Amino acid sequence: MSSVLVFLEIKNREISRISWEAMAAAHILADSLSLPVDVAIIANSNNPILGTIHGKAPRTVYAIDHSLLHDYTADGFTAACAQLIKHTKPAYVVFPHTYQVRDFAPALATRFNEVLISDVTGIEPSTPPAFLRQLLQGKLNARHTHSGTGPCFVSIQAGAFRADVPHGGATMVEPVEPSLDAGSIRTQPGEPFRASAQTVDLNSAAILVSVGRGIKEEANLPIVQELATALGAELAASRPICDNGWLPMERQVGSSGQTVAPKVYLAIGISGAIQHLVGMKGSQCIVAINKDENAPIFEVADYGIVGDLFEVVPAITAAVRKVKG
Ligand SMILES: Cc1cc2nc3c(=O)[nH]c(=O)nc-3n(C[C@H](O)[C@H](O)[C@H](O)COP(=O)(O)OP(=O)(O)OC[C@H]3O[C@@H](n4cnc5c(N)ncnc54)[C@H](O)[C@@H]3O)c2cc1C
Fold it and tell me: For atom 51 of ligand 1, which residue has the closest CA?
């Protein structure tokens, strides 16, 4: 019988949150196809971390271990996963969309004459199942179905699926020792990627005023800073603002920044790309100000103001100052 194989990643000595989200997606997919879920993880079969997978309902956990896998390399991970997939023949292989996965999973898919359907944000349980991806900054949803003869490879975008997964079911751990040759690993493992140290904890702020590219230039930032000050809020930003160096990286919200859930999140001149939404959609109340009424941010907003931020924001700041005296 075929299966849905989900790859879990260990980060900071635990299974990463996005891996559990991929597991949830794998269960949705497997339920629609009446297939079992199996897990692949690069770990020794005696690693106590595997205990956290028990009870999350996979059929078998394949614990892949080899001295050449102790440090990540794309060649090592690709070869090890390819051997497991050839052996277990899953119908679908599901990955969390992490830095590592985007490094090696496309090469892995190519070994099976397939492509990686990356950044999946939704699964339609049609026959065959359809995978949804966002295009053009979230303005369009693309629907992909698998028509190849090999396994279908997908990676799941952070925050797109809830991390809670069904409980129950006995799990069998099967140690896997791939045959790897040091000569076929072309790169030297380096320092793993680390997100920049956070000196501002956006999570402790009740109100966040978050600014996006709609602000146009750094010189205009005082407009939003004044609103933040009037509200007693912290300033946050979308990625382009931090990439431009207009605000420090630790103020970035999103999949490669902080995940926040304040009481109020004001998104000012932010379009609402999925990478931004995953970092803030858990906010209790979202207020969006955008001049484009079709901006995707309005889909998650509780209150929306369609207008020019250069008129709207100073007017709100003046109103807040008046109320606060
Ligand atoms: C691997 C990866 C990771 C990423 N991680 C993140 C992340 O962590 N965080 C993040 O934010 N992004 C992230 N991104 C980038 C993301 O895809 C978007 O490009 C980004 O969020 C867009 O930022 P924005 O909304 O500020 O800009 P834009 O998409 O350019 O939107 C600007 C918005 O401002 C509006 N606007 C323009 N002028 C005005 C005006 N005068 N008044 C009102 N509204 C106006 C426009 O209508 C538009 O909707 C990532 C991308 C990748 C590929």
Answer: 275
